[in-house]
Structure formats: structure tokens, C-alpha cells
Write a structure and sequence with these properties.
With 238 residues, the chain is of the alpha+beta class. The chain contains 9 helices and 15 strands. It has one domain (2-23, 36-237): Rossmann fold (3-Layer(aba) Sandwich). Helices cover 38% and strands 25% of the residues.
């Protein structure tokens, strides 16, 4: 199985939608995905994710399967952080917290990083465990059962399907880190994805245990091909 994780296009967060640029990004992404096709298309229930998926669904004549548990607001409500200035951001976006998340004491806790006393009383454990549970159930439906203690997935129904999920940056950090068995603090502070960035993970078709492999991470070649700006978050020019 090839699993495609697509972040939504350039957004307007209130009201939830895509900007004109985001719509063009979504159309460019659709033309790229349509070259090889998809067997299943899933999307977060947010408007911006559904609008990003729409051009792909139209070209491939498929309806998206909407997943409420992937919505960004659910993840943000459990994984945000208030800085000293009172400004709330994702936990991994705060500069001071990024350093702490990479400290030896947090690294030592691995996937149980939220057990650190500094996070007592926060919803972080609940948030990570919720996403982990839903992710495992989702991949099990696709034929792969997670064995997190061993860091592998059991291919119970190995297949050659191409499956796409259109969702978000913040949710995606927790979702992808769990799939790859990389502790969330390390993944979220070392990897990121721009608008319509395409991440491709291969689940080998062989029966037995397998280790998912990232073939591409947040690739935005479709934007370059269409002559669209390749600016990360409209901030860093590549």
C-alpha cells in the first residue's frame, strides 16, 4: 500500500476555507495525483481540507470519506501551549518548548513524553492517545495492524492500494509520528509540511511484519511545475 498524506492548501482560518492561491495549489496537486490514480480518498471534516480534496475527487470521479477525528480543532484543543506572553500556539511552535521537547529528560521518556512532571494537568496524554487509537483503527481497516511495542505493523491484508488522506499540519505531526513510531516531540520539532505538501509512506505488500517507509516528505513539486510560489507558510522562499 502507498499512503499519501496531503496538507490542505493556503488557508483562511476564519471562516474556514482556501484562499485563491490555496485553490490553485489544490488544483495543481489534483493533476499530480490523477496521473497515477487513487483507490481511496479520505479527508478531514474541515472545509479547507475538503476544498483541497475536491479537485482530486473531481478528476478521479470519487467521493471523499470524511473523518471527523482528523479535524485540526480537535488536535489543537489537546496539543496547544500558552507562552509567557499568553499567546497560544501548537506545542511544537513555541521556541522555548521546542528546546525542552529535545532535552535529554524528554527524549528518555520516548513515546511517553507527556508523563514528564512539567506536563501534569495538561491534556497532552489524552490528545496523543486519542490520535494513536484512531490511527491504529484507521490503518487496521486498510489491512495493517500496529504493534507499537515492537515498532512494526503487521500486514494482515497486504495490498497494492493507493490511499490518500487530506488533512492538516498540526494533526499530521501527531498522526505521522505515530505511524512511524517516532516520538512526537522529535518528529514535530524536526519535520514539517507546507501547503499541499505530499508525504508518501510505503507499507510493503509482503505478509508478516513490516516497517513503513517514507518515500517522500512534504513534497511540493506540483507547485513548482505549475509555476506557483514554493514559499513555506508564505514565509521562507525556496
Amino acid at each position: 500500500m502507498l499512503f499519501f498524506y496531503l496538507r490542505h492548501g493556503d488557508p483562511v482560518y476564519n471562516p474556514d476555507s482556501l484562499t485563491p492561491l490555496g485553490q490553485r495549489q489544490a488544483e495543481a496537486l489534483a493533476r499530480r495525483l490523477a496521473q497515477f490514480g487513487l483507490d481511496r480518498i479520505y479527508a478531514s471534516s474541515s472545509t479547507r481540507a475538503l476544498q483541497t480534496a475536491q479537485p482530486t475527487c473531481e478528476l478521479l470521479k470519487r467521493q471523499p470519506i470524511v473523518l471527523e477525528w482528523c479535524h485540526e480543532h480537535l488536535a489543537y484543543s489537546q496539543l496547544d501551549y500558552a507562552g509567557k506572553d499568553g499567546r497560544r500556539t501548537w506545542l511544537f511552535q513555541n521556541a522555548e518548548m521546542r528546546r525542552f521537547l529535545n532535552s535529554p529528560e524528554i527524549r528518555k521518556l520516548g513515546v511517553e513524553w507527556f508523563r514528564h512532571e512539567a506536563f501534569a494537568g495538561t491534556p497532552y496524554a489524552e490528545g496523543i492517545r486519542r490520535i494513536a487509537k484512531e490511527t491504529d483503527a484507521f490503518l487496521a481497516e486498510l489491512g495493517y495492524r500496529h504493534l507499537p511495542e515492537q515498532g512494526v505493523w503487521r500486514a494482515e491484508r497486504p495490498n497494492a492500494e493507493r490511499v490518500a488522506l487530506f488533512a492538516h499540519q498540526g494533526f499530521g505531526q501527531a498522526f505521522l509520528s505515530w505511524i512511524l513510531d517516532i516520538p512526537y516531540p522529535l518528529f514535530s520539532t524536526h519535520f514539517d509540511m507546507g501547503h499541499t505538501g505530499m508525504t508518501v509512506i510505503e507499507f510493503p505488500e509482503e505478509e508478516g511484519d513490516c516497517v513503513p517507509c517514507v518515500l517522500e516528505l512534504a513534497n511540493d513539486g506540483h507547485l513548482w511545475r505549475e509555476g506557483l510560489p514554493t514559499h513555506y507558510q508564505n514565509r521562507v522562499r525556496f
